[in-house]
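pls design
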C-alpha cells in the first residue's frame, strides 16, 4: 500500500473510533512519526493529509528542515531532547512533546526567551512506570507543574505518553485512562501557562484504543510508512 492509501485507511479507522464513542473526529489529530523516513516520504504523508509531522532526532529534524520536507504541515519534536540540543529545536518546531525534567524546561524557556518567543510544549509522562523509558513519574509531574507555570517563555498545552508496546488490543486502556484522569486533575488546579487541551497518545498498534480513552493526537509511524529499516539507522 502507498503512503496515501495508508493515511486514508488510518483516517477511516480514526473516524470510526471517534464516532463509536461519541467524539467528533475533528478533535483528533494525526501526527506522522517520520523518524528514519526521508524528505520524499514526509512530503507524501503531508500531501496525503496528515495534520503534522513528529520528528525524534535533532539531526534528522535539522536535515529535513534544510530540505524543506515539512512544507505544508507543522513539525513537532517527539523524541527525547537533550538539554544541550534545545537551540536546534526551540522555535523550529511548533510543539515539543517530550519535556520530562525541570532542567530541560528551564533550558527551553531560556532559549525561547533569547529568541523572544513562547514555545509550546507537552509534558511527557512515564505512565506505565517503565525503567527503560523517559518521561516524568506522576510524582515528578506534580512537582514540575508549579515550577513550569512560572516560566514566561513556555506554554504547556498538554501531556504525552508512550505506554508499553501492546500485545493485545485493550492492554494499554488502563494507561490511557490514567492519562485522562491526570489531565482532568491538572485542569482543576488552574496553573498559569498550563492547559491540557492536547493528549498525545496512541501509536500504530493502539491508536483506536487511545482515541476511545480521550487521545486528541495520535503519533503514527509504521502504519503510514511501513516497517523502519533499523539496519540503516544512524548511530547517535
Ligand atoms: C516512533 C514513534 C512513534 C510511532 O510509532 P509506530 O509504532 O511506528 O507508529 C510514536 N511516538 C514516538 C515518540 C515515536 O518515537
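designed seq:
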Amino acid at each position: 500500500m502507498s503512503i496515501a492509501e495508508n493515511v486514508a485507511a488510518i483516517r477511516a479507522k480514526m473516524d470510526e473510533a471517534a464516532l463509536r464513542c461519541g467524539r467528533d473526529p475533528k478533535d483528533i489529530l494525526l501526527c506522522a512519526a517520520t523518524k528514519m523516513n526521508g524528505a520524499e516520504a514526509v512530503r507524501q504523508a503531508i500531501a496525503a493529509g496528515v495534520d503534522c509531522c513528529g520528528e525524534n532526532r535533532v539531526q534528522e529534524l535539522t536535515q529535513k528542515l534544510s530540505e524543506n520536507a515539512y512544507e505544508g504541515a507543522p513539525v513537532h519534536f517527539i523524541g527525547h531532547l537533550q538539554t544541550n540540543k534545545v537551540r536546534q529545536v526551540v522555535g523550529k518546531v511548533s510543539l515539543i512533546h517530550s519535556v520530562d525534567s525541570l532542567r530541560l524546561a528551564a533550558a527551553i524557556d531560556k532559549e525561547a526567551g533569547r529568541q523572544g518567543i513562547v514555545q509550546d510544549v507537552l509534558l511527557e509522562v512515564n505512565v506505565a512506570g517503565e525503567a527503560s523509558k523517559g518521561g516524568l513519574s506522576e510524582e515528578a509531574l506534580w512537582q514540575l507543574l508549579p515550577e513550569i507555570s512560572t516560566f514566561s517563555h513556555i506554554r504547556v498545552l498538554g501531556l504525552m505518553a508512550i505506554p508499553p508496546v501492546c500485545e493485545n488490543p485493550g492492554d494499554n486502556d488502563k494507561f490511557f485512562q490514567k492519562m485522562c484522569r491526570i489531565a482532568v486533575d491538572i485542569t482543576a488546579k488552574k496553573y498559569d501557562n498550563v492547559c491540557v487541551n492536547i493528549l498525545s497518545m496512541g501509536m500504530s498498534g493502539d491508536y483506536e484504543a487511545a482515541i476511545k480513552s480521550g487521545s486528541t493526537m495520535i503519533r503514527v509511524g509504521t502504519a503510514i510508512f511501513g516497517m523502519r529499516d533499523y539496519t540503516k539507522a544512524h548511530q547517535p
